[in-house]
Amino acid sequence: MTAIKLKPVDAVVVGVGVAGSIICKELAAAGMRVVGIERGRMLESQNDFAMPYAHDELKFEGHRSDILQNLSRETLTFRNNMGETALPMRLHGSFKVGEVVGGTGVHWGGVSIRFLPWDFETYSRTVERYGKDALPEDCTSQDWGLSFDELEPYYDQFEYVYGIGGKAGNLNGVIQPGGNPFEGPRSRQYPNPPCGTPYSASMFKKAAESLGYHPYPTPTAGMTEAYTNPYRLMLGKCVNGGFCSNYGCAMDAKATPLTTVVPSLSKHDNFELRTLCNVIRVNKDSTGKRATGVTYIDARGREIEQPADIVILTSYAFNNARLLMLSGIGKPYDPVSNTGAVGKNYAYQVTSHVRLFFEDKEFNPFIGGPGLGASIDEFNGDNFDHTGLGFIGGAYINASAGGAPPIRVRPVPDGTPAWGSEWKKTVAHYYKRSFTMSAHGGCQSYRSHYLDLDPTYRDAYGLPLMRLTFDWHDNEKKMSDYVTRKAVEIAKLIGPSKISAHAVKGKYSIVPYQSTHNTGGAIMGADPSTSVVNKYLQSWDVSNVFVVGGSAFPQNSSNNPTCTIGALACWAADAIKEHYRKRPGPLV
Amino acid sequence: MGESQQHAAPVPHAFGYLTQPEVRFLDAAVARLIPADELGPGAKEADVTYFIDQQLCSPWGTLSRAYRMGPWPVGTPQQGFQCPLTPQEIYREAIRETNAYCNKQHGKVFSFLTGEQQDALLRELEAGRIELQSLDAKVFFETLLKNTMEGFFSDPIHGGNRDKIGWRLIGFPGVASASYVDHAEEHNVPYQVEPVSILDIQQQRAEVDAQGYPKHVVLHRKA
Is B129 helix (H, G, I), strand (E, B) or coil? Predict the structure, then answer.
C-alpha cells in the first residue's frame, strides 16, 4: 500500500489526552502549525454525557464502555514473570485505558495531588538517608533528572488550567494549617477552595487528628465553585452526583481535557485535530537520528504519512513505549543484561482498602465527588523513618466519598456469602452503613518489571502487542502491610462494628480493577544509558522526538499520576516553545 | 448495548437469544442467587433473566470489544479470562451441559430440582467441581453471578431491576439529584427518596430540573 503523503507541519502530537491536549494548545497558541492525531473518537458532553444517560452504570461498566480502549483492535499481553508465556488481556480489568479525545482523562477519578519532592529523587535521597543497602537489590528506581522545584511552576499552571480545589499546606516554604504539611513548597494557593467534609471524612479526620496526624482536604478536579480557566473555558460547580470515576460529567464540573482544553483548540486555525486515526510508527530519515513525521491508518483504512519537524508522543504509557519500539527509536531494555532503556521501569501503584461497617450510622454513599474527602500524608514517600522497616516508599491514606453506583460498589464484611439470602440481607443492611478508607501506595521499579514486544500476539494492523511482565515485589508487599495496619489503627478509633482490611499480597492479577496508574517504559533521567528521554522529555536518540506522559516516571509515586502528567506536559511544551524552536537539537 | 437502549417500552419477555428451556434454567438459577424472601422480591421477580437475554443480544453477547485472537492456551488465574467462547456460547453450552449433568444425577433438569439441590449444584459450579465438556464451570458461574448482580442493580432501561427492586433493597436513589451537594456534609441523616431511573425520566414519570437532573421525592427524613 502506498501511503498518502501530506504537507509538512511544525509539530505532530500523537494522542490527545491529558498531556497531548495541553501540548497542542500551548504550541498552537505560540503560532506553530500543529496536528493532533487521536485513535479514538470525538466526544461532546451534550451528546455523549447527556442526562439522564450519563448516570447509566451498566453503559460505562468496563466490558461495555465505549469510551475505553477497544480491545478487539489492540490490547497488551501479560505475565507475572519471564518464565511464563504472556497471554492477551482480553477484557478490561486491573486498569481502564481510554480511547477517545481526552483519553483516560475523560473518565478519571479527579484526584489531583502533586508528587512529593522525594518522588523525584527517590534513589539519591534513600541512599543519603539510609545507605545503599536500603534499596532492594534488584531495584532500578532512579532520580528523574528534574526536581520538584523545577516542575513547581508547571504544577501551578496545570492546576489553574484544571481548576483544582484544595488547601495549600506549604506556601513558599511556610506551613499552612489545614493543608498537607508534607507537600513540596507551592508558589500560590489552589485556584479553587477545598472540597467539603462528608460524614465519613469527618470521622476519619477526627480519628487521624487524635493520633497526631494532619488530615487535609484531598485536592479535587471536581469544581468546588464555578470556574473560568486561563483558556477562557467555563466549568460548572460540582453537585456531588457521584458518577465521576468511569464517567463523563454531565455538568461539565469535572476538569478533563474535554472541559478544560479541547474546546479552546478550535479557535486556532493553525491547529487540526484528526480523530479515529491510529499512528503505527514514527518515521526516521536515513541517518536514523532525525524523525521525519508519523504514519497512521485513518478511519477509512488509508495509510497516511504526516511529515513534521517535531514529533511528540503523548499517548498512554504503554503506547508511548510501544511506538518507540515499533519505530526503532532508542535501545529496547533487556532485563537479562540490564541494558537498554525503552520498556524499562514499568511500575503500578499498590492500593489496599480498609472497609468500615456500622450498625446505626448512615453515610448516603451515593452522594460523592472526585476525591471528596480527606487524606493524610504521614505514611507517604519518605515522610516517616523507614529505619528497620525493610522497605522504602509508602502510601497516602484517605477516606473519600466518590459515589457508590451499586453494580461496582456494594461492600459486605469478610465472610459474607457471595449470593443467597444471607448475602441479600447483609448487602441491604450495609450498603448505606459502610465506607472505605484506602492506603494508596507507590511502587518502585525493578529489573524484572518491564515492557517489550510480544512474540506471538498482534493487533488489528498486524503489529506486535506490548508485553507486560510484572508482579508485586516484596518491598511493596511489606509497604502495603505496614500502611494498611496504620489505616486499621485509624479505623479502630472510628469504632465501626466490623472492619475488613486487605493489604496487597500474593501475585499481581490483571483481573480485578485496581487503578489506571501505569507508569514507565519511556523514562526520564540524566543518563542516556539508563533513560529514554532527558529532563525535557526529549529523546536522547532522536532529538526531534519528545515523549510525554506517565511513561516518563522512573518509578511510581503514591499520588495519582494525572496532575504530574499535566505538569510534565506544560513543562515540555515550554521547553519546545522557548528552547527547542530557537535552537533545534539536543537540549541537554 | 446502544441499540437495546433505544427500544421504547420493549414487549416484556420478548426473548431475543434465549430459548424457553434456557429461560426456565435461568429463572430457577437467578432465584437461588438472589432469592425472594422476607426482604422482598429477588432476581427472578426483577426480570434478571430478561436482562441477561438482552445483554446476550447486545455487543457484549459476542464480546465485540474484547481481544479475540488466538492462540488460546490455558493461563494462570492472574492472566484472566481466556475462554474462546462468547457469552452467547457460554450460556448455550453451559446450560445444556449442566442440565445433562442434572439429568444424569437426579433424573431431572436443573429447573425441576428442589431449592436445596439447586443451591448445591450452583456451589459445585462455583467451585469448578463439575466437569463441563466445553468450558470451566467456574467461568460459567462467574458470568452468571456477575450478570445476575448487573441485572438486579442496573437501570431498568436494560430490562432488569424491574420496579427498581434492587435499588429499593439497598436504598440507592438511581439517577443523581443536583441537590446532593446540599446533603454532602450532613452527618448520619439518611437520604431516603423514591429512586428515579432513566426509564422513569424517559417515560416522564419523574420531574427533572433545567440540567436534566431528577427532582427526588423524599420518602421520609429523620428530624
Answer: coil
Q: Strand, coil or helix: what is A328?
A: coil
- Residues facing residue A217 across a β-bridge: A374
The answer on pLDDT for B3 being more than 80 is no
- Collapsed DSSP state (helix, strand, coil) of residue B124: helix
Domain extent, residue A207, equals 4-580
Name the CA dihedral angle for A26, A553, A218, A224, rounded to a multiple of 10 degrees.
20
Chain A residue with CA closest to B196: the answer is: A52
pLDDT tens-digit readout, B69-92 = 999 999 999 999 999 999 999 999
Assess if residue A15 is contained within a domain: yes
DSSP 3-state of A81: coil
Contacts of A348 (CB under 8 A, 6+ apart): A95, A443, A470, A508, A514, A515, A517, A518, A519, A556
Indicate the pLDDT class of residue B9, thresholds 50, 70 and 90: low
The model's pLDDT over B148-182, given as tens digits with 9 standing for 90+, comes to 999 999 999 999 999 999 999 999 999 999 999 99
User: What is the total residue count of chain B?
Assistant: 223
Question: Is A95 inside any structural domain?
Answer: yes
The span from the CA of A402 to the CA of A351, in Å, is: 16
* CA-to-CA dists, residue A323 to A9, A25, B40, angstroms: 20, 23, 55
Residues 27-86 of B with CB under 8 A from A: 32-35, 37, 39, 42, 58-60, 63-69, 71, 73, 75-82
**Residue B4: pLDDT above 50?**
no
Name which of A561, A427, A506, A530 is nearest A144 in CA terms. A530
pLDDT at B30 over 70: yes
Give me the residue from B119, B174, B190 closest to A364, CB to CB: B190
Any domain includes A210: yes
Report which of A456, A480, A460 is spatially closest to residue A389, judged by C-alpha positions.
A480
pLDDT at A337 over 50: yes
> Strands A4-5, A303-313: parallel, antiparallel or unpaired by DSSP?
parallel
pLDDT of A445-490, one tens digit each?
999 999 999 999 999 999 999 999 999 999 999 999 999 999 999 9
pLDDT of B1 strictly over 50: no
Instruction: Over range A50-63, report the average pLDDT.
Output: 95
Q: Which residues contact B38 (CB under 8 A, 6 or more apart)?
A: none
Q: Which of residues 114-133 of B touch A (CB under 8 A)?
A: 119, 122, 126
- In total, how many domains does chain A have? 1
CB nearest to B80's CB, from A53, A91, A423: A91
Hey, is A428 helix, strand or coil? Answer: helix
3-class SS at B53? helix
Q: Which stretch of DSSP H or E encloses residue A500?
A: strand A498-502
For residues A59 and B192, give the distance between their C-alpha atoms in angstroms, rounded to a whole number.
Answer: 25
All 3 cell numbers of residue B169? Answer: 433493597
Mean pLDDT of A354-365: 98
Pairing of strands A395-400, A434-441: antiparallel
- Beta bridge pairs of residue B186: none
What the block records as the C-alpha cell of A15 is 494522542
Interatomic CA distance for residues A308 and B211, integer angstroms: 43
- Position A46 scores a pLDDT of 87
Residue A83: partners with Cβ closer than 8 Å, 6 or more residues away: none
- What does pLDDT average to over chain A? 97
CB atoms B176 and A425 under 8 Å: no
Query: Contact A22/A262 with Cβ under 8 angstroms?
Result: no
To which H or E segment does residue B98 belong? helix B87-106
| SS3 category, A359 | coil
Domain of A220, CATH number, reads: 3.50.50.60
Environment class of residue B136 by beta-carbon count within 10 Å: exposed (0-12), middle (13-18) or buried (19+)?
middle
Show the cell assigned to A239: 453537585
- From chain A, pick out residues whose CB is under 8 angstroms from the CB of B170: 406, 410, 427-428, 431-432
